[in-house]
């Protein structure tokens, strides 16, 4: 792996971290788009997953109320695609 | 052949939807309650989040994240969208209601509890300032400027701590997933 590639990857991770925490500004968005052209197969959700860990660490689990579960279940049946034959 | 719950959901397995609700309903509800102080808003948010989960179930990759992490990521994305639409700060104080929980739900939630414990271990691996900045931003909804004011750190330093903290968490998650895969192959 070349230094240039590592620098590009590092910068992409920084911008992904910015997007996951504070959001990106116009100039950063342009740079981000340019870097993605160089690394089109980059894992663009990796920092969102890391941010999810921060949220998960502070989660105090409560049970889902039964009435809400029923509503979600009914909505799910409308959205699920039928199993393939 | 689908092996994870989300893969089964993606394949249209209605029973997997019930299983998913039993296993992750409490997690999504708890997250929604933190972003939506009003009970009715939280109910709508949970429904929106689960629709997003069903839509994205096929993209889940067990090699790179746990289901709980993936579901939390989707929930956060959707809840932030709602929060921005409403321009209200998330209330991060857990609101404890204690409706009866069945034994099956309890056992399923224990697995999610393990994921929460793992996330807490990862957070302890960060430098204190990285952890503080990420906590203030992600769990308390503070902007970069607000964090700089609250911590007396320069704006650029706040961003640097957030970046380093997330990059470190990503590394820790990678190591952990690799370990799990090794154990799974034994």
Brief overview:
The complex is a heterodimer of chains A (85) and B (186). Chain A has 85 residues and is mainly alpha-helical.
| Assembly of the depicted chains | heterodimer
Rounded to an integer in angstroms, the radius of gyration calculated over CA atoms of chain B is 18 Å
Mean pLDDT of chain B: 84
CATH architecture of the largest domain in chain B: Orthogonal Bundle
What's the rounded overall pLDDT mean of chain A? 89
State the domain count of chain B. Answer: 2
Q: How is this structure best described in words?
A:
The complex is a heterodimer of chains A (85) and B (186). With 85 residues, chain A is mainly alpha-helical. Chain A has one domain (3-79). Chain A has four helices and no strands. In chain A, helix 1 packs across helix 2 and helix 1 packs across helix 3. The longest helix of chain A has 19 residues, at 3-21. The model of chain A has no long low-confidence stretch (mean pLDDT 89). Chain B folds into two domains: 1-102, Rna Polymerase Sigma Factor, Chain: A; 125-186, Arc Repressor Mutant, subunit A (Orthogonal Bundle). Helices cover 75% and strands 0% of the residues of chain B. Chain B contains eight helices and no strands. Chain B has helices at residues 5-10, 14-35, 39-56, 67-86, 103-124, 128-139, 144-151, 155-185. Chain B is globular, with a radius of gyration of 18 Å. The model of chain B is unreliable at 91-104 (pLDDT under 50). Chains A and B meet through helix 1, helix 3 and helix 4 of A and helix 2, helix 3, helix 4, helix 5 and helix 6 of B.
What descriptors fit this protein?
heterodimer; A: 85 residues; mainly alpha; 68% helix; elongated; B: 186 residues; Rna Polymerase Sigma Factor, Chain: A; Arc Repressor Mutant, subunit A; 2 domains; globular
Note the topology.
The complex is a heterodimer of chains A (85) and B (186).
Chain A (H helix, E strand, L loop, with lengths): L2 H19 L4 H13 L7 H12 L8 H14 L6
Chain B lengths: L4 H6 L3 H22 L3 H18 L10 H20 L16 H22 L3 H12 L4 H8 L3 H31 L1
Helix pairs in contact in B: 2-3, 2-4, 2-5, 3-4, 6-8, 7-8
